[in-house]
Write a structure and sequence with these properties.
Helices cover 42% and strands 20% of the residues. It has 2 domains: 147 residues, D-Maltodextrin-Binding Protein, domain 2 (3-Layer(aba) Sandwich); 123 residues, D-Maltodextrin-Binding Protein, domain 2, CATH 3.40.190. The protein has 12 helices and 12 strands. By secondary structure, the protein is an alpha/beta fold.
């Protein structure tokens, strides 16, 4: 074989090796598990504490996929997903509607999947002697008709109201819906405003005269005291059966065009293993809260919850 033929053969051999390596890499990228894949999750502190932290740990152990969690509120839990800025999200409120009854333009591309149940609770400092409050008196605190703990059977001290700064927050929106029947209701008393549930809890932990409204899934993991409402404590059993009145659904959000790898996380959360993790955190999962389905539909209809997703999407079997 002359030198030109030898060089030609070497070139073809090298090209064959390069092509083989290229095809091997491509094949591995298709069939290999997403061991080092990272997904992003943005959402409310309540959904995060209710189950998402533990779900992320279990999912990474099962699949190798890391879920990077950012707790930045229920609104971002919908809108960051709708815009494509986050793979997944979590929210404790439904979509918002515009004046024509259509989904808010920044939220319309988000899909909401019901995965668990939560409840709104009244929280106070641990040393507060009050253990119970009526819904009527709770309303009166926010309307400014009750301004002293003495009116509720407590010490002669003024009430310091701590509240979420936005009507669109998960707690702000749902509290207005469930207690006042109006998502645009303007509270008529002075209050200290905070950006999310975590600073609300911390401020109430430090302020003897403070009171606020929170999600039970987050509140029970903090150092605050949780009050009964109309003498019904927000225990897991009372929430699951609907005896405690201020129950609400928790959602995971995904973009309508969300990638299959993101949808697989939701499938895991709805699986027996995922639902068991949710229940183990003290949160009411779908099976535990099955009695809430008809109660929620009744509540939705009576209060005009037109912004909720269709029942088929919200109340999954």
């Amino acid at each position: 074989m002359d030198s030109r033929s030898s060089n030609f053969s070497v070139k073809w051999m090298r090209l064959g090796i390069v092509l083989f390596i290229g095809w091997a890499v491509l094949l591995l990228s298709i069939v290999a598990p997403a061991a080092d894949r990272e997904l992003t999750w943005t959402g409310c502190d309540i959904t995060k504490k209710a189950f998402m932290d533990e779900i992320a740990k279990a999912y990474k152990q099962k699949t190798g996929v890391t879920i990077k969690i950012t707790g930045s509120g229920a609104t971002k839990g919908i809108r960051a997903v709708a815009s494509g800025a986050s793979d997944l999200g979590g929210t404790c409120r439904p979509w918002l509607l515009d004046s024509q009854g259509l989904k808010h333009p920044e939220e319309k591309d988000a899909e909401l999947v019901h995965v668990a149940w939560d409840a709104l609770v009244v929280i106070v400092h641990p040393e507060n002697p009050i253990n119970n409050i009526s819904q009527e008196n709770l309303q009166k605190i926010f309307t400014g008709e009750i301004t002293s703990w003495k009116s509720l059977g407590g010490p002669d001290m003024r009430i310091a109201l701590i509240e979420r700064e936005s009507k669109d927050s998960g707690v702000g929106h749902m509290f207005r819906r469930l207690v006042f029947g109006d998502p645009e209701y303007e509270f008529k008393t002075e209050a200290i405003h905070v950006s999310s549930s975590s600073p609300l809890e911390k401020l109430i932990e430090q302020t003897v005269i403070a009171v606020g409204v929170d999600g039970v899934s987050s509140a029970r993991k903090s150092g605050v005291k949780i009050l009964a409402i109309d003498n019904i404590a927000p225990t897991k059993e009372n929430i699951a059966t609907g005896r405690y009145p201020l129950f609400r659904p928790l959602f995971i959000t995904i973009n309508k065009q969300g990638a299959p790898v993101a949808r697989q996380v939701i499938d895991f959360m709805l699986s027996p293993a995922g639902q068991a993790i949710i229940a183990a955190q003290g949160t009411v999962n779908l099976e535990e809260g099955k009695a809430l389905k008809p109660l929620w539909l009744k509540k939705k209809n009576s209060l005009g919850f037109n912004g909720l997703p269709p029942e088929a999407a919200v109340l999954r079997p």
